[in-house]
Amino acid sequence: MTTIQSIAGQDEQHPDVALVERVRAGDVSAYDTLVRKYERQLFRIAQHITQNKEDAEDVMQDAFLKAFQKLDQFQGNSKFYTWLVRIAVNESLMRLRKRRTSKMVSIDEDLETEEGTVPRDLADWAPDPEQNYNQAELADILRKTIQGLPQGFRVVFALRDVEGLSTEETAETLGLSVPAVKSRLLRARLQLRERLSRYFHKKNGSVETGSRELRAES
Amino acid sequence: MTCTEFIALLDDLIDDTVAAETRAEVEKHMHKCGHCEVVFNTTRKTIEIYRSHEIYDLPNDLRERLHAAIMARCKKGC
Which residue range(s) make up the domain with B55? Predict the structure, then answer.
């Protein structure tokens, strides 16, 4: 059985620590290395939260500048990357608040407590369903689908499953408890699965496509 | 094992953090419940697809421009 595991390791001698030390000692070129290493990830995370390309560009720049200014506050208790992601998440939320001045924005927004815990679409998918679409179509489907998730689910899925943070790191980054992250992750995964099902069903008609409930008893 | 109990274990199953004896029960349930097998396989596939496809691409020219802007500000002390 294939498994999907977090890529986050627990190595205490992380190479980022040495780079951070060099930056603190005045070597700006070491920061260049760190920026290059994480700029794609930060841009993606900012896009997941703001859902706007221009905002994501600003967030990415502001997050790296803020991290540079605050580098003395980085304790080394958490990984540099996790610390950086926390800054980017906060910058992204601030950017959303600026856009929607009348509305509070938080990662708790729009959460419906019951939705998405019971799978309804139980028809199987085609063997490699993504191959029925070209790259652009697929990217469009994936974007539309994840953008339909509530913010609080989307950001947990993005950090945990797309960026590979551990459950604990995701919790720390978002200021949530570990059980809250787990609960949101399950619902995010199930809701995405449900929404993608309409694109990825087997198409030969040999599979039922109607909605059926899971049995309560086995 | 019921389907509801199975769904509660779904994340641990996908992340491979289920204890050995529980895994045996889970696999037994999946063997006789086609619906739960579909939910497991398609949820795992959902994650794989999102992990392996770049949906928010950062084009190289934009990346270089943003990178240069960040480093120019850092060199000036921000």
Answer: 3-75
Structure tokens at A96: 């959303």
Residue A201 phi/psi, 5° resolution?
Answer: -60, 155
Residues of A in contact with B74 (CB under 8 A): 28, 31, 64-65, 68
Q: Which residues of A touch B28 (CB under 8 A)?
A: none
Q: How confident is the model over A19-35, as pLDDT tens digits?
A: 999 999 999 999 999 99
Rounded Cα distance, A94 and B33, in Å: 46
Number of domains chain A is built from: 2
Smallest Cα distance from A104 to chain B, Å = 26
User: Which of A3, A149, A200 should one mutate to test binding to chain B, selecting the residue with the greatest count of B CBs within 10 A?
Assistant: A3
Comparing CA positions, the residue from A113, A110, A122, A131 lying closest to residue A193 is A122
Complex ipTM: 0.92
CATH number of the domain encompassing residue A156: 1.10.10.10
Does A112 lie in the same domain as A22? no
